[in-house]
Amino acid sequence: MSTDTLKSGLTKRVIPCFDVADGRVVKGIRFVDLRDAGDPVELAQVYNSEGADELVFLDIKASPHRRDTAVEMVRRVADQIFIPFTVGGGIRTTDDVRAMLESGADKVSINTAGVENPEFIAEAAAKFGSQCIVVAIDAKGVGPGRWQVHTYGGSGGGTPVELDAVEWAVRCTELGAGELLVTGMDADGTKDGYDIELTRAISEAVQVPVIASGGAGGPEHMLAAINEGKADAVLAASIFHFGTHSIREVKDYLAEHDIPVRP
Amino acid sequence: MRLVIVDYGAGNLHSVAKAVTSQGVRPLVTSSARDLDGADAVIVPGVGAAADTMANLRKHELIAPIREYIDSGRPFLGVCMGQQALFDVSEEGGEHECLGVLPGRVVRLPDGLKVPHMGWNRVHVAREHPIFEGIDDGSYFYFVHSYFPRPDDPAVVIGETDYGIRFASVVARDNVVATQFHPEKSGENGLKLYGNFLRAAQAAAAA
């Protein structure tokens, strides 16, 4: 059945992503007058007032002995921000999941630990509910219509694993993932647009929402990720942080092109 | 005013507690049935599955006290699973008996759209109610759910949302109000909704 024929008021989400380390936002935030450009709470408030639909915090230095700082940051954000947010990076055990959720995170994003031990995804979903389990999939093209899953993705390049991205995505949802955060590694950092084919291949293969990530250079890329990539949400970092485009601008652009967005 | 948030070992209580605190009322977060006795207002939040929710309420011996509290006529707000739990039966993962405060069943969202229904969607006012004070008809709220309530009595439906079907996203009867969405995650409009609930509760407590 075509999803287009069913009446729905659900909007497409625009999600800024922050890299954090030791409870601070890292990588230059350069677009507004901030008292403290590293303060996750202050940044979250700015993006909230601009119309961000959700926030993602990615702990790039996460390790077990640093968890307390991450938990403290989550608590501070949750105390003052009344929109949903996801925490990722270093989520390896159900204790990690519980610590983040109890501190006020709405969802956790699982990546490497899920690839290494898929049962972890199932266990986390069974314990806390699918609605709070996001699985992040980093994938690189290896031929027409084929993508390979990598762990430790991003600027470091990542390590390929013997998993087809679309098959892995389907498997994740069977294990109980409630949402997928799909990063096209070939597009990531290019600002030339998302990996549309990867996004669409996964979105059409699963029943859960898909967030497109990696490669956003402007609102037109977000429109393409939604229209052609069938993404339910679009994530970006640098274009927002460097002030190239504001969230408001992106949403206005999407609205002009008949994409339902929250004003 | 004594505001109780019921903690039955599930759900994101932190955000609900912070949201009501932002509206000027410091809540008592408790799993003790005794605390319901002296409460002026009660909120039952919740995420997760219906079976777990009911099992947890049973384990904490909260089922009868919640029913008695609601029968007493004092203000009650159910959020997400706290809304679904009010109905007779949930079909999530089998057939699970719920609180039976409102006649009706909780059923799965139809095929054809992605499930869970996750994100911001509009709430259309079906019937005016003080909980909507200062909130525009068609405002956006944040949803995360795979099941929805189907009340037997259409008169309890005060807000509706479209997701494949048009479903009851806000229900109310007498002293009970309940939302399928998460007001504590719905920005300004959500905080207004908590504010409206608390103001009505304060007025009722003073009366």
Description:
The complex is a heterodimer of chains A (263) and B (207). With 263 residues, chain A is α/β, with parallel strands linked by helices. Chain A contains 10 helices and 11 strands. Chain A has an 8-stranded parallel β-barrel, surrounded by 8 helices. The radius of gyration of chain A is 17 Å and the shape is globular. Chain B has 207 residues and is of the alpha/beta class. Chain B has 6 helices and 13 strands. Chain B has a 9-stranded mixed β-sheet. The mean pLDDT of chain B is 95.
The biggest sheet of chain A, with number of strands, parallel, antiparallel or mixed sense and barrel status, is: 8 strands, parallel, barrel
Low-confidence stretches of chain A: none
N-to-C series of helices and strands of chain B: EHEHEHHEHEEEEEEEEEH
* Classification by helices and strands of chain B: alpha/beta
Span of the ends, CA to CA of chain A: 29 Å
Radius of gyration of chain B: 15 Å
Reading side by side through the largest sheet of chain A, how are the strands ordered? 1-3-4-5-6-9-10-11
Tell me, briefly, the overall form of chain A: globular
DSSP helix count of chain A? Answer: 10
Task: Compute the number of strand runs of chain A.
Answer: 11
User: In angstroms, what separates the terminal alpha carbons of chain B?
Assistant: 12 Å
Strand order, biggest sheet of chain B? 2-1-3-4-13-12-11-8-9
Biggest interface: chains and residue counts? Answer: A-B, 39 and 40 residues
Provide the structure class of chain A: alpha/beta
From the alpha carbons, calculate the radius of gyration of chain A and give it in angstroms.
Answer: 17 Å
Identify the quaternary structure here.
Answer: heterodimer
Q: Tell me, what's the shape of chain B?
A: globular
The residue-averaged pLDDT of chain A reads 91
